Amino acid sequence: MEKLSDMFSIPIDNKVFFEHALTHPSYAKENNLDYTCCYERLEFLGDAVLKLAISDILYNKYPRYPEGNLSKIRSIIVSDATLFEICESIGLSELIILSRHEEKQGCRRLESVCACAFEAVLGAYYLDGKFNELKDFIEEKFNSYIEDVDKNFEKFNAKALLQEYTQGKSKEVPEYKLVNESGPAHKKIFEVEVWYAGNCLAKGVGKTKKEAEQKGAYEACIKLGIKSCQK
């Protein structure tokens, strides 16, 4: 609890919330604990807390942006990929309590597991009555990501841009083919090809399939001369 409090720079009152927030479902099952003793319910709550905080930040940061733009930026900011990076940067992944099997499988470094635990901790802080402090933490940690997405939106939204473009040309949509997968289970590298109308438009490489697809889509957009999203 002391390490967790230091990571977030927010004091902890009710430790039980946070014990549950750091407990993976596999550990609860392995030790015959009640399902409420893992992070799943708190993750549900934390997801809403994060969206509310990010929505408030975006609403005030970009007073002239329409709802559509704010929603698009928020969807990227609250993605598992972003949460994983922040989780790793503060060291939260080291505190997740896993079953022996999941630990051996390297699940501590899985994007989805880290994102769930991060959201669960947010939910725990909310229940602990620390929303204002939590919002300050979120603004500090997420601000650089928000500005990056705003300035380079087309990179993060490339799949949607590419699909919109191709559907305007024909009924066909881009197809993403996984052509290579390498590395250990907890640190895989994925290579994806982007196909459209029988042609391979581009390739993308990433730590997840989604990241590889997004990078491939962006390269395809450049190749096709698709204009960036206008704000």
Task: Give a verbal description of the structure.
The protein folds into 2 domains: 150 residues, Ribonuclease III domain (Ribonuclease iii, N-terminal Endonuclease Domain, Chain A, Orthogonal Bundle), CATH 1.10.1520; 69 residues, Double Stranded RNA Binding Domain, CATH 3.30.160. A 3-stranded antiparallel β-sheet has the order 1-2-3. The chain is built from 12 helices and 3 strands; from the N terminus they run H-H-H-H-H-H-H-H-H-H-H-E-E-E-H. The N and C termini lie far apart (43 Å). By secondary structure, the chain is mainly alpha-helical. The radius of gyration is 20 Å and the shape is globular. Helix 4 packs across helix 5, helix 4 packs across helix 9 and helix 6 packs across helix 8.
Key attributes of the depicted protein:
2 domains, mainly alpha, 231 residues, 12 helices, Ribonuclease iii, N-terminal Endonuclease Domain, Chain A, three-stranded antiparallel beta sheet, 60% helix, Double Stranded RNA Binding Domain
Query: CATH superfamily name of the largest domain?
Result: Ribonuclease III domain
Low-confidence sequence ranges: none
CATH level-3 fold name of the largest domain: Ribonuclease iii, N-terminal Endonuclease Domain, Chain A
Query: What do the pLDDT scores average to?
Result: 91
| Total DSSP E strands | 3
Radius of gyration: 20 Å
- Element-by-element helix/strand order: HHHHHHHHHHHEEEH
Per CATH, the class of the largest domain reads Mainly Alpha
What does the largest sheet look like? Answer: 3 strands, antiparallel
Termini gap: 43 Å
CATH architecture call of the largest domain: Orthogonal Bundle
Instruction: Please bin the fraction of helical residues.
Output: 55-70%
How big a fraction of the residues is strand? 5-15%
Class by SSE composition: mainly alpha
Tell me the number of helical segments per DSSP (H or I, 4 or more residues long). Answer: 12
Strand arrangement in the largest pleated sheet: 1-2-3
